[in-house]
Automatic annotation (TrEMBL):
This is Sporulation integral membrane protein YlbJ. It comes from Sporosarcina jeotgali. Coiled coil: none annotated. The lineage of its organism: Bacteria, Bacillati, Bacillota, Bacilli, Bacillales. The chain crosses the membrane at residues 31-51, 100-120, 132-152, 184-210, 243-266, 278-295. Keywords: Membrane, Transmembrane, Transmembrane helix.
Length: 296
């Protein structure tokens, strides 16, 4: 009943604020085309192509499979980590337990996005982008090592990879990679446009209902719904302030509901638990700004 009421309330907001909803959706489209698609699509295709190639699940030790998941998943941008771990689980390279834990660790923005977009375009300095990327991966690697220890201590309590059935190998891995990548890109585009529009409408409603500073409200709401919109709002309202780089780090760590929805859809399709992912995001929000402060 609560869900039905919420849905109808959102429908009413979109009907009452069509112009703002349109502007928010248009902003989401521009963000996707200009800031996400050029950085995300090539890497997703190559990652999917690599994962579609025939591989023996017993040809490498467990730690090498975990390292492969982290390397492919954590350097391709959101939601490549979820895509990588889910595909490795379907290929029989990871168990459901391992995949659920790695889902939380293999989650980071792509280096081209951080260095190219955040570093050069927002910070005006590629070195600042590199430092932010290092802070993100320091937090992720520490969490990744914790995950490795947890999996090593409980490995005997869960299914053994060697006992899991292997799916039939793909006859055309590149074509399958394009097919899978297209569905992922559509998912990313849909969530970015929807949550950008929703964030814009809710920002206007909150501003009209309460006397609060527009920059704070807009940045907070947009960061909650769509990460890239939140980053742009923070740049617009807080650029030059002492807290600006740490605010950007926090927004990138929060991710926003748009990215979380992408991960949830992908993880659910592979029947993965989301509890470790939630814990990982809380750790990231707390740790990344601290590590960035130490580097700056």
């Amino acid at each position: 009943m609560i869900n039905v009421i919420m849905i109808w309330a959102l429908i009413a907001l979109f009907i009452l604020q069509p112009g703002i909803a349109h502007d928010g959706a248009e902003t989401g489209v521009k963000l996707f085309v200009q800031a996400l698609l050029p950085y995300l699509l090539p890497y997703i295709i190559l990652t999917q192509w690599l994962l579609k190639l025939p591989a023996s699940k017993n040809s490498s030790p467990a730690w090498m499979r975990y390292l492969k998941a982290y390397t492919l998943g954590s350097f391709g941008g959101f939601p490549v980590g979820a895509v990588t771990v889910s595909e490795m689980k379907r290929n029989g390279q990871l168990s459901a337990y391992e995949s659920s834990l790695l889902l939380a660790a293999c989650h980071a923005p792509g280096p081209m996005f951080i260095v190219g977009y955040v570093g050069l375009e927002l910070f005006g300095n590629s070195m600042a982008g590199w430092k932010l990327l290092i802070a993100i991966h320091v937090a992720n690697i520490l969490f990744f090592l914790f995950v490795l220890l947890l999996m090593a201590s409980k490995r005997s309590q869960h299914e053994v990879i060697g006992n899991l059935p292997l799916p039939p190998p793909s006859s055309a891995p590149l074509l399958d990679a394009f097919k899978e990548s297209s569905s992922i890109i559509i998912l990313v585009a849909t969530t970015v446009v929807f949550f950008s529009s929703l964030g814009s409408v809710l920002t206007t409603v909150i501003q009209a209902a309460a006397s609060v500073e527009m920059g704070i409200v807009k940045t907070a709401v947009l960061a909650l719904f769509e990460m890239t919109s939140g980053v742009q709002s923070a740049t617009q309202h807080f650029y030059g302030s002492a807290i600006f780089p740490y605010l950007i780090a926090a927004i990138l760590s929060i991710n926003g509901l748009s990215i979380h929805m992408q991960v949830f859809v992908i993880a659910r399709s592979a029947e993965l638990s989301l509890k470790p992912y939630v814990i990982g995001r809380i750790w990231s929000v707390l740790a990344v700004p601290v590590f960035l402060y130490m580097l700056l």
